[in-house]
Each structure stands twice: as C-alpha cells, then as structure tokens.
Known about the structure:
9 helices; 7 strands; 7-stranded parallel beta sheet; alpha/beta
Amino acid sequence: MSKVIVITGSTKGIGYGLAEEFLKRGCSVVVSGRKQDVLDQTLSKLSATYKDNVAGCLCDVTKLEDHERLFAFAKEKFGRVDVWINNAGVAHQQRNLWELSNEVVETVVKSNVLGSLYGTRTAYNGMMAQGGGWIYNFEGFGSNGNVREGITLYGMTKAAIAFMGKSFAAELKGSPVKTGLIQPGMVITDMVVGQYSDPQEFAKVKPIFNIIASRLEDVVPAIAEKILSNETNGARIDLLPRWKVMLRFLSAPFVKRNVFD
C-alpha cells in the first residue's frame, strides 16, 4: 500500500523536491504553503504528471490551528497520514545577533521552533488516533554544536530542533508513533543563497559552497528513499556526515565541483 506523506513548506526548495520524489515512488502527497497563488502553481505543476495522488492545503506553520487543519485535510483526502515532515523554516541574512530586527527574530523563532513543535504535536495526536505513523524534523547548521558568526539566531533554532527530536524519540518508546531527524547538509536553495545580500560577501563563500554544498537534485532522492525504508525510531538521516565533509576538502584540489551550474 502506498504511503501518504504530508510535507510543510513544500512549494519550493527541499520540500518541493521531496514531494516530487515521493510521488515518483507511488506515494500520495499533500503539499502546503502560506500563499494561495504559490500553492496553486505548485499543485498545477505536480498534478500535470501525478494527477489524483497530490493535493494541497494552506498552512502557516506559526499557527497551531493551521497544522490541525492540514492533518484533517490530508486524512479526509487520502484516509490517513503515514509520514509527516516538518520541513518549513526560514533563514535570515548573515548578521550579528544585535543587528537583526525584532521582527526577524520573531519570524525565525516562530517558523523554525514553534512550526516544528506544533507540527510534531499535531501529527502525534492524529497518528495515535489512527494507530501509528512517522514524524520527521529537519536539522540544519547549529544542530551539531558547530558555530559561525552571523547565524547565531538560525543556529539556535536548529539546535532546539535537534534536542526536541532526540528527546521526543525517547518519549515515544513503545508507542506506535515513531520519529526521526533529517540533516540534509548544505543544499543550494533560495533560502541558503538568500542569506547573502552583498554580492562581495557571497563571492567570498562561493568557493566553500562548491566544496561542501550539494545540489537539490542530488539530495532529495536519498532523503526520500531513507525515509521510506527506515524502521528505527530516533533515526538520524545524515546526508553530510563529518567524514564526508573532510573527504570533500581533501579532494577539492583534484575534484572541481560547481553546484551552481
């Protein structure tokens, strides 16, 4: 039986890529986003190939009621929710913590932390009522303890996600609901590139990106496959472990990568 997948923030970037990958594998997918016109465009594009296997629902992840509506929509449309992926999140321009506006701080924390928390709680309640399911949360830079100037706020939110994912997995022992974490590594998306408003700043980091970053199309198939095959509660899907980072740096003088072409 094909699985039903719900992905928050799936009108672009990794979320959209995952939606397409799951559809290719015969799953039914509910995509979501905050803007109706963008959601309509996404549905039109995916429906052209996958027809009745895809549906869409508006969801502002900073609002608990939107998560609840999304779960109810998916269950009404496809009968159940097998996998819920908290993918939606935002970054910010690389700035010192004191240089960020209060509006940016609030938006990043609400989207990344409350969004994943609300999604996790909503999916858990819905999945317990149906007899089980899987909940995945996305890590990011900062979740493994690394630090870098300019992204203190973003890194803090991802560190929170990592803790929640591990602790939640411990709470789920013996439960029919399971959870996991996804660490995609650095993936070239609009969110990542958008952190650099100054072309000169971006030019400085571009050589590093070409060493350690990955293209979207190289990452999402692996994530989708690992999610569908995973049977371990608390599993961490890590697409760029430390040994792979070191290998890329060591091979950089001999293997020229260009992730922007």
